[in-house]
């Protein structure tokens, strides 16, 4: 019986990916020998740089999205996240995998106007000059228009009696677009000030990326959800009930969404994107009707469990840190992700896979069984086990009545005495 991917050594995993042509020779060499960011590059990235800080990268296997299989790199320090994502992906594949839809991909920016004497007149003035202002925006970053993108529309929102937000929507093509959009906004703000002496407070993109959402859906045959203790239909109904609780109770919703973001953030990092952008936008979206709710929903439909997740995901395939962090381009190739749009689809599907695995564990065996098995590894290392001691200590920990650091230390001492 061939070993499973997770049972292989790190180098065997890389060799397997190479043998299955999921990695090129160059990228296999990179993954095998990667020592991370150089101090020199790190110093170019941030201020007052002291050192670098490494995190593990693993692979969520076989995420089927719109009929295409993706191997998704994930960067996380949390045990069980990657195993759960692979588990969710496996379950989803039994129903044909994830399908996605994406209405548009525009980034919004704001110019905030305050102390306005006549809000109606200012609004009318701005909307009457929309074409001119879009031109000003495009002239500030002309390469974007040359690539087929650029400023698309603007709107004016009244925030209070004397305050307005001019929202500018820009097609940022393959970039995340924050810097580009900020440049364009400042140019428009300068024109508003110079031409019509409009009082500008500030100009900055909005991380509430409502014009850059993606939806992933999945339909899983109920039979595949069965566990030794529960029938498929009872697991499916419990997942639907858990999803309902996340819709009505913010205490549960936040944890539900944290589970989704376990997958999303890990992939966002692996693809060199800014996870603060995605986190802030996702949680605002979760509260879009005034109450914070679960971002995904699950329901039983005939003999299938239907899942759906919509996320604002303004991700970049180029720009930002994507060409500065050495692992990003090899990760893009490994995942066979070829555009910002595809990256959005894959990461949204990954979030839903992560959510499915977490909910299934929660309503069946409970989260701790799987979690603590993987946690045993962290405990063994924390207790001070050397490489050769880790495996026997994990075995001993799994048989112990309690799984905590004191037990790990005691068992390690015992192990050393036995030798
Ligand atoms: P960049 O400033 O790196 O701009 C994108 C770059 O990608 C440009 O240099 C552009 O070239 C180049 N590019 C190459 N090909 C394409 C293409 N096909 N489509 C689009 N651009 C292309 O990054 P962003 O503007 O994307 O900004 C992202 C960064 O901004 C992130 O690092 C983020 O952390 C940071 N940031 C985030 C903020 C926030 O979210 N609140 C605020 C401020 C910064 P060219 O110049 O020729 O157009």
From TrEMBL:
Q: Which reaction does it catalyse?
A: (R)-mevalonate + 2 NAD(+) + CoA = (3S)-3-hydroxy-3-methylglutaryl-CoA + 2 NADH + 2 H(+)
The Swiss-Prot or TrEMBL record describes its family as follows: Belongs to the HMG-CoA reductase family.
Q: Which Pfam families match?
A: HMG-CoA_red
Highest rank taxon of the organism: Bacteria
Its source organism is Loigolactobacillus jiayinensis
One MF term in GO for this entry? hydroxymethylglutaryl-CoA reductase (NADH) activity
Upper classification of the organism: Bacteria, Bacillati, Bacillota, Bacilli, Lactobacillales
Name of the protein in question: 3-hydroxy-3-methylglutaryl coenzyme A reductase
| UniProt entry keywords in alphabetical sequence | NAD, Oxidoreductase
Q: Which SUPFAM superfamilies match?
A: NAD-binding domain of HMG-CoA reductase, Substrate-binding domain of HMG-CoA reductase
